Known about the structure:
The protein is mainly α. The chain folds into two domains: about 5-100, no CATH class; about 100-200, no CATH class. The chain has eleven helices and two strands, in the order H-H-H-H-H-H-H-E-E-H-H-H-H. The chain has helices at about 5-15, 20-35, 40-45, 50, 55-65, 90-100, 100-110, 135-145, 150-165, 170-175, 180-190, and strands at about 115, 120-125. The chain has a two-stranded antiparallel sheet.
Amino acid sequence: xxxxxxxxxxxxxxxxxxxxxxxxxxxxxxxxxxxxxxxxxxxxxxxxxxxxxxxxxxxxxxxxxxxxxxxxxxxxxxxxxxxxxxxxxxxxxxxxxxxxxxxxxxxxxxxxxxxxxxxxxxxxxxxxxxxxxxxxxxxxxxxxxxxxxxxxxxxxxxxxxxxxxxxxxxxxxxxxxxxxxxxxxxxxxxxxxxxxxxxxxxx
Length: 203
């Protein structure tokens, strides 16, 4: 699932007339539906005086046309699997995920399209071997850097350095899955020790 940075959170709050608590609850529910149940469970452990009543909150989201009006909203205290029946309006989720994928899109734009390996031009700006779509790759990237703008800027600097020094010999999909910016940063900072740069291949 995609993450939002603070600038995009502000845009979502304004565009959809949401309170910060409503947006936080939405994020936790989307994580739950995506299989990451721990965030919602932590949210529900907050005192109701802080988070409000969940049923009332979701009914309010129905009135704002964030949650589909035909969603059945019913929960047991310890069993939240009925969250899977909560359906969000596609106009909202499309806007939410579009905002969360901006960092991945920027990485995609600066990533080299191809390189030469053993005399063969090899495409690099591909994700098909690791992901089902570019959107899935962008979601994974945002999650792995915790949607941190400063980390993202550092990744872009490392990619630009690697391009200049001919160190990018992996697909974008592999770069994201392996968090290869961490290895490249160590090479860039000289922390790898003795190595032959011409023999390094990060695939």
